[in-house]
Amino acid sequence: MEKLNGKKINTAVFISGRGSNLRSLIKHYNKKKSPISIKLIVSNNSKAKGLIYAKKAKIKSHIENFKKINIAEKKLLKKLSYNKINLICLAGFMKILSKKFIKKFNKPILNIHPSLLPQYKGLNTHGRVIKNKEKYSGATVHFVSSKLDSGKIILQKKIKVSKYENEQTLQKKILKVEHKLYPKAIKKILINL
């Protein structure tokens, strides 16, 4: 991975849905002092709302069907190499990247997860937090490893869960945290490279 030395890091953002973290990253990285340049948006869902943000920001997007994961990942690796991508940010990407893909890409892959990892890995985090009457929840940015939501933690932010909270209110609260946390985590890892 090349050092920062004034050059922005070519980045790909992988999404599956509404793309609120993508929108936040685009907004953040349109700033002059941004350490990254988003060159490619990848989605496994051609109807992902997040693709609208890619179009508005005039960022290339690529849709990859993950029915045959080996084929999909081979194509993706070619696409990433062609676009000289040095960093991948997963932002609500609902597919698990294989060990082989992670090894072959051989550059940082980050993910944002809506809980205080290692607690509540996987899906339906907010529902589980509320069901278990947790006093705190939050968001975590971590490196992607071949095990689900288990890579080295980069940054976490904790928030209080009110006793009147439901899944929707908690999700809204944590999304706001995610939008601030992701850019900070990216900056942190790029400074340490």
Low-confidence stretches: none
Distance between the termini: 8 Å
Strand order of the largest sheet: 3-2-1-4-5-6-7
For this structure, the CATH topology of the largest domain is Rossmann fold
Order of helices and strands: EHEHEHEHEHEEH
- Helical segment count: 6
Give an overview of the whole structure.
The chain has 193 residues and is an alpha/beta fold. The protein folds into two domains: 1-107, Rossmann fold; 114-140 and 156-193, no CATH class. The chain has helices at residues 20-28, 50-56, 69-82, 99-105, 125-131, 167-191, and strands at 9-15, 36-43, 60-63, 87-90, 109-113, 136-143, 153-160. Helix 1 (20-28) packs parallel to helix 6 (167-191). The mean pLDDT is 93.
List the helices and strands and how they pair.
Elements: E1 9-15, H1 20-28, E2 36-43, H2 50-56, E3 60-63, H3 69-82, E4 87-90, H4 99-105, E5 109-113, H5 125-131, E6 136-143, E7 153-160, H6 167-191
Parallel strand pairs: 1-2, 1-4, 2-3, 4-5
Antiparallel strand pairs: 5-6, 6-7
Helix pairs in contact: 1-6
Task: Provide key terms for this protein.
single chain; 193 residues; alpha/beta; Rossmann fold; seven-stranded mixed sheet; 6 helices; 7 strands; 23% strand
Can I get a quick summary?
This protein is an alpha/beta fold and 193 residues long. The chain is built from 6 helices and 7 strands, in the order βαβαβαβαβαββα. The protein folds into 2 domains: 107 residues, 3-Layer(aba) Sandwich (Rossmann fold), CATH 3.40.50; 65 residues, no CATH class.
